Amino acid sequence: METENILELQKLTKAFGDLIAVDNVDFELQAGEIHAILGENGAGKSTLMNLIYGLHQPSGGNIRIFGKSKVFKSPRDAIASGIGMVHQHFMLIENLTVAENIALTVAQFSSKDGNTDSIESGTESPPEENGIPSKLSTFRYKKSDAIRLTEALSNRFGLAVDPSVLVRTLSVGLKQRVEILKALAVDARILILDEPTAVLSPQEVTGFFKILRALQADNRSIIFISHKMKEVLEISDRITVLRHGKKVYHGKTGELSAPGLAREMLGEELSEVERKENKATTDLVLNVSGLTVPGSRNENAVLDVSIQAYRGEIVGIAGVDGNGQRELAEAIMGLRPITSGAVEILGRQPSGTKNIRKCGVGYIPEDRRTMGIITSFSIADNLMLNITHFEHLAKRGVISQKAKNRASTQLINTYDIRPSSANIPASALSGGNQQKIVLAREISPQPELLIAVNPTRGLDVNAAQYVHQNLFAQRDRKKSVLLISTELDEVLQMSDRLYVMSRGRLIEATAHRDNIEALGLLMTGETDE
Question: pTM, whole model, 2 decimals?
Answer without folding.
Answer: 0.72
